[in-house]
Structures are given as C-alpha cells and as structure tokens.
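S.,

Sequence below, as promised.
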Amino acid sequence: MFIPPNRLKDNFESDLNIGSEVRLKSSHIHIDKEIAAEVFGKDLNVFVVYYPEKKSLMVSPVSNVFFKKLHKASQHMLKDRNLKGDKTIALHEIIIDNQIDETDRDLEYELQPGLGILNIKL
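The prediction came back faster than expected:
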C-alpha cells in the first residue's frame, strides 16, 4: 500500500500537538521528559498508589523508600516512550479495578519536587 507523503506527515503532527505534560492515552500515563527527569531521575521503576476517594494517583521513583513505607504502593515499570525521553506507565489494572474513565485526555497534575512525588488527578 502506498501512503502519499503529505498524508504521512498528518499522522506524525497529531502526535506532536499535545497540550499537557501529563496525559492518559490507551490506559497509559504519558509523562513529558522534563517532568519525568525532574521526578524520576534515572530510575527505571516507580511506586504507584491510587486513592479512589480523592481520584488521585501518586507516583514516585523506587529510590524513594519513604514513599513505599508511607503508602501501600505497587511497583510499576517506567517505560521509554520515544527518543526524546518521554516516559509511560501502564495503568490497566488500576483503571479496571477502580472503574476509571479510560478516555484519552490531558490530566491535571501537581509536582512536589522536594519530595520526588507526582500527584495526578484521574
């Protein structure tokens, strides 16, 4: 199948025009490289905990041992999304267990840099 070059360009541009630094897409949290670098550093795994009453997802690097002791968090893999350094975290289990709207969308977030915690509103 032949795809004309002008149509191919349209598909790539839709991925580049993204509004928020943190978004939900295909049951994955997508985090831009600046936020990911600031919160996670070089860690390849993260602790994730979801609080349904607050509709809040808290994410912290595994190097933050205090976070694991304070919250009943589970460990997830922090995956590279692209060569720019954007990261993703799969949330299939959390979305299904808590019946969260899985529509692709930009998400509100709060960055707590001194604590190394990313608080995401779902």
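Residues 21-121 form one domain.

Coffee later?
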